[in-house]
Amino acid sequence: MKIVDMKVTPVAIADPPLRNSTGVHEPYALRAIVELVGEDGRSGFGETGCGKGTVAALEGMRDLVVGGDALHTTTVERAIAARLGGLPVDPADVARQHLDLTPTRPTTAAQRTFSPIEVAALDLAGKALGRPVCDLLGGAVRDAVPFSAYLFYKHAGGGGEDGDARPDRYGEALTPEAMVAQARAMVAEYGFKSVKLKAGVLDPDEEVRTIRLLRDAFGPDVPLRIDPNCAWTVETSLAVGRALADALEYLEDPTPTIPGMAEVRRRLLAEGIAMPLATNMAVTKWSDVPESVRVDAVQVILGDHHYWGGLRAVAQLGRLCETFGLGLSMHSNTHLGISLMAMVHLAAATPHLTYDCDTHYPWLDPADDVLAAGSITFEVGAIRVPAGPGLGVEVDRDALARGHERYLRVPYRDRDDVGEMRRRYDPAWEPRIPRW
Ligand code: GKR
Ligand code: MG
């Protein structure tokens, strides 16, 4: 299938005031939608995080994409890598990679730029062939993909402003007790069978108490995870690891950097605590893997096709994790339904996916998705792998246009959780990593 056009549409979506170690989400999250048009008039879609340079970077690849074949994505990947890979990488960005929560990490520019193009090309090729994207990745090894409830401490509010203000479906949650209420509501609505707590917000003792309360509420058969995004020192990570040794399926990014994670791992093991450490911050690209494996820094990698370089790259990461005896889970940032369906097809075709995937999707108001409301449904916490062609969902062009209009009204172009925290809640806020 020849690609005859490429369109990039940035959109803004209402986002509730979710807290994390660096601050709080702004009222809108920004995403970029890539559309590839085939010679038969069909379109394929991909989605990615959107920062200041994202649209220009994607547009800058037009000559490498248009005129090519939707099934020849390796050629495009290599051409993008050649164009962007040679650019100097700022050492400050490399130092920050372990501390960066944004979906637009500068250290993975080539992989990030290729990813939505690959997803759109596979969606287009799948539609042309009448086959689902997972078939283009080797075929599904599971018929449904399980996701985890993703809990956030949060301020009151449902995100968006003025006419875009969305209902606050889960309410304020700034205490362990309120978090249990949030978990009960989300699990009741979606049927999730595992729970992830975004931490690094309250004092660590309160976050440990939150996990204990969740354990009491859901029992030992619901796996729990905690992820403070590097908010803890090695000593605090050890204290939490001890306190929750019997309660966690994994401990995610307790402390910054590969050496920091390796020290936590070594010392926990020395105490007889074998709980795996997981990451989407210490190991974020291929070149991080050898050192991480050498020092046993992490035992679970959270793959993410948006910055690991697409769907086939994460499927390959699964093989690599299996080779080194590591688990594979899936990371998420605030996203729309196109990304969710890309994750579903990827997970369906990845045998060595050893944990339920993360998703921010329950935090998205249906009014903001670019798919028709109700296009994606969870059944007992899982999404059935669509058998229809491509990603198996259709983009609602009116919804896409509304998302773009919102983008034009939003005054910022980069995610800034620190600035938002200062503006709305605490003028003296300082993002200290680690904080405790
Ligand atoms: O949405 O605030 C957030 C998360 O903290 C996100 O930015 C992280 O990248 O979900 C992610 C994670 O697992 O670290
Ligand atoms: Mg994480």
From TrEMBL:
Any one GO molecular function term: glucarate dehydratase activity
Tell me where in this chain the Mandelate racemase/muconate lactonizing enzyme C-terminal domain is found.
176-271
Q: In which pathway does it act?
A: Carbohydrate acid metabolism; D-glucarate degradation; 2,5-dioxopentanoate from D-glucarate: step 1/2
Catalysed conversion reaction: D-glucarate = 5-dehydro-4-deoxy-D-glucarate + H2O
Enzyme Commission number: 4.2.1.40
Q: Which Pfam families match?
A: MR_MLE_C, MR_MLE_N
Question: InterPro entries in the record, alphabetically?
Answer: DgoD-like (IPR034593), Enolase-like_C_sf (IPR036849), Enolase-like_N (IPR029017), Enolase_C-like (IPR029065), Mandelate_racemase_C (IPR013342), Mandelate_racemase_N_dom (IPR013341)
Transmembrane feature ranges:
none
Full protein name = glucarate dehydratase
- Organism encoding this protein: uncultured Thermomicrobiales bacterium
